[in-house]
Amino acid sequence: MDSFPLQPDCDRLACHIEEFGRRIKLSGTPEELESFRYLEREMASYGYRTELLAHDAYISLPGRARVEANGESLPCITHSMSASTSGEGISASVVYVGEGGETAFAKADVKGSIVLVDGIATEEVAALASAYGAFGQLHVSPNEHLYEMCVSPVWGSPSHYTRSMLPTTVVCSITRDDGARLRAQCLAGADVRVSLWAQVDTGWRKTPILVAELPAEEEADDEAPFVLLSGHHDTWHFGVMDNGGANATMLEAARLLAERRSLWKRGVRLCFWSGHSHGRYSGSAWYADEYWDELERRCVAHVNVDSTGGAGASVLTNSAVIDELKSVAAEAVEAVSGQRHAGRRHGRAADQSFWGIGIPSMFGSLSHQPPGPVKMLTALGWWWHTPHDTAEHIDLDNLRRDTSIVLRVLWRLLTAPVLPLNYAAFATSMREELLGIQGRLGDRMDIANLIARLDALEAAAQAVNAVANRVECNVARAINRALMRASRLLVPLNYTSGNRFSHDSALPHPAWPALEGLRELAKVPQGSPDLPFYAVHARQSRNLVAHALREAQRALAAAAEAR
Question: What is the DSSP letter of 391?
């Protein structure tokens, strides 16, 4: 029998799932707000202080769509942030671009055309189609289902600087079999013409965020540190798995943790977002901006939860986690499931709006489907983002298991005297990246000083790790402050381009984007007249990294010596 003191109650989880299956929760709608009220009542009943915020968000709700090809009307949907059409729609020749990579767009003449794309609609293809002058996009589903998507490449609500990045194309999706016929005609050299109609309700509207907080008993002041637990509440259709399962996990975790509050070393704050599905993470992005200063001062880590409890979700080895928290995730996953957690690097998704602030993060989706014969955008089940995401696709045993993993992670983050942030693991990961860049740079630029500073950071982190489990309370607080200082410097290197006060785009990012200036310089051929231009930005990148490593090392070294 598991001796861990916090065991989820399946009956309670089932009641939450039943409640979440009652409403379609589109961002900013009355039905969504009514469901938020349920969350608010539940959290208040567990003893949490609650606040239901309302803020302006740029939300896009897909309406009716029509696709006509070869004189036939095809089953279809349009997408959040697609351009709308007039009543006449648009008609153009079809150009097939495979899976829609940049190479395919560069080779094809797509200006004024409707591109036919294999795969579920994405913001990356929308950005390329707009950039290359296409009028429309027609995406071919990997199966008979049509998958709702938001195709904005802007993270959160657009500003006057980023609004020009919004899609200019009309975006629709059709089924696999209908797409196969059009693809065959294109490959045979036929002039295929398609007509698209789309109605998309896009604009500013008020959306809710529920904030529920409970401080630790021994540190209940307004400056005390806290762990952030978050998940979105808005849904595509009923969204019972995505994200009802995660919301049930959050509620049950909050209830059980509150019962052992006397053992906490720091508090917990839960945020339930709107605008995830229809505003490209507009809720979490707004919250990060509006509460930037408080989050920078007080938030020690962010645990995001998405799509727990899916039927058939037997793979627990691949959830995303930042380097310095990998051991926390691995211990929880193995203790509950017996599986060895390999982990993976975070993608640019899942309400991870807090990297610029420098908050270490983990998860998003937690349990996944085993590999199947059909290539899907996610491993969250064929019903994901369709009207079929209903209670029948929740497995309560899996939901209890996933909730148990989240509980163990939160328990460790809340009760460990010293925060379990391992910056020696961060250094190992960054060294691999830097050494690869150094080998490609040759004599274009010397980055030996970055390797040396990383070595010093690793030594300081190892010294902190060595004393973490045997320090007095006051020393533990000093170490925790140093770890938070280090995270504010180092997390942005790992996951942002370097600006802590704005959000990078929602497009795919390379690993360690702060190092991109060095990587770009390494690609320029020796003797190229462009080399000095690239060296300017590379020097700036080097300085950004050198400063962060130096200051983080100083903070950790001072804390380790304070014992």
Answer: G
In whole angstroms, what is the distance from residue 225 CA to residue 301 CA? 10
End-to-end CA gap in the chain: 39
| Secondary structure of residue 362 in the 3-state scheme | strand
Overall pTM > 0.85: yes
Longest distance between any two alpha carbons in the chain, whole Å: 78
Q: Average model confidence (pLDDT) for the chain?
A: 96
* pLDDT tens string 124-159: 999 999 999 999 999 999 999 999 999 999 999 999
Task: Please report where in the chains the tokens 């962010």 appear, as a residue.
Answer: 302
Residue 479 neighbours by CB distance under 10 Å? 25
**pLDDT for residue 556:** 97
Q: Give Cβ neighbours of residue 539 (< 8 Å, ≥ 6 apart).
A: 445
How confident is the model over 441-467, as pLDDT tens digits? 999 999 999 999 999 999 999 999 999
**pLDDT score of 2:** 63
Please report how many Cα atoms fall inside a 13 Å half-sphere around the Cα of residue 293, on the Cβ side: 2
**Angstrom distances, CA of residue 250 to CA of 218, 399, 405:** 23, 11, 12
Give the three-state DSSP class for 62: strand
**Whole-angstrom Cα distance, residue 143 to residue 509?**
28
The answer to whether the CB of 268 falls within 8 A of the CB of 226 is yes
| Measured CA angle at 486 (ends 299, 420), to 5 deg | 65
What are 77's two structure tokens? 């949907």
Distance CA 483, CA 446 (A): 29
